[in-house]
């Protein structure tokens, strides 16, 4: 996938909306609301800024020199083979850990309608559908994600419109469903520490920008990559803040819980069950969209890992249409293991594993920022943005240390990073003599 493709900057922005608007927002943000109340809106602004700074760093490297493998390739160019090895495997492993939870979430959403069907049937079914979409090629993947993006954004806009009609009395004669914050206790449910521990879950709502970076190599003009990211992140941030603030105004804070989407909670509170069913369908679409994006990205990254000699050579094989079929088979195998782990492990243990995967994804974002500092000639504003990104990402990751439910996941992520580091140390002699590329 080289520069000079057929994708417009607006098309990439739309794809980005599809990649990022997943279960991290539609479901995971409930955890943040529970921990910090209305101050979650401030966290969304901070997370949006951090996400933009990370993507902007990646986009500017793409604008200078679009390269297959995207963020993994830039890490290798910046610091040498060891960095590309670490970045690639860290990303692949993080997504493998997360895939199982995505499939479990979609299965649980579907059981809202079919509660007698075993969960594993839904998980396996969505896994097969996701593989089919990826197998059909990049063009089908783009079209599918565009459709998913439109459906998800339409649902959010519909929720915003419905909320306004309820609050203004058009659909309700009373204002019983107006729950404005009455004091500091609702702005900061668990105080400053609650905000800190909630930050990670808000950041998860923006995960997917790395997939957008992979697709940026299809742009007609790679220099449009920064513009696409800016348009996408501004749009999604405004929609996120508007919709979640309205959800918190429609239902009492005590009603929100980690096992239910905040939008379903608020719609149930105003007794709009038809819309609840519609939103349940949106949750399934959102989860499936994220699943397909993850499958696509890890397959592409594994192919790049193999091309660089950091995985068995058989994984470089492609079909006549250019699909890295061997890498896809490995990804499917990893996904099957992830599903089995999700189904067999105790709930708490599996939560630790998926948290570890999410944290490792944030670590890959740090690789992107540090690579840009090495490869790009940066202005003063560029240095400010990169330092801000590092601080915000580290703040989100470190908050898990102070949360007893996510602390084990934090230490698990460090163990996984340590294992990759030990393997890197063992293989260092193979890369001896290689030199990082010069700044682009």
From TrEMBL:
Record localization: Membrane
InterPro entries per record: AA-permease/SLC12A_dom (IPR004841)
Keywords noted in UniProt: Amino-acid transport, Membrane, Transmembrane, Transmembrane helix, Transport
Residue span(s) of domain Amino acid permease/ SLC12A: 13-374
Protein name: Amino acid permease
PANTHER family referenced in this protein's UniProt entry, alphabetically: GABA PERMEASE, GAMMA-AMINOBUTYRIC ACID PERMEASE
UniProt xrefs under Gene3D superfamilies: Amino acid/polyamine transporter I (1.20.1740.10)
Membrane topology annotation: Multi-pass membrane protein
Main location: membrane
Residue ranges of the TM segments: 7-31, 37-55, 96-114, 120-137, 149-171, 198-219, 231-252, 272-296, 325-346, 352-370, 382-402, 408-427
Pfam family, one: AA_permease
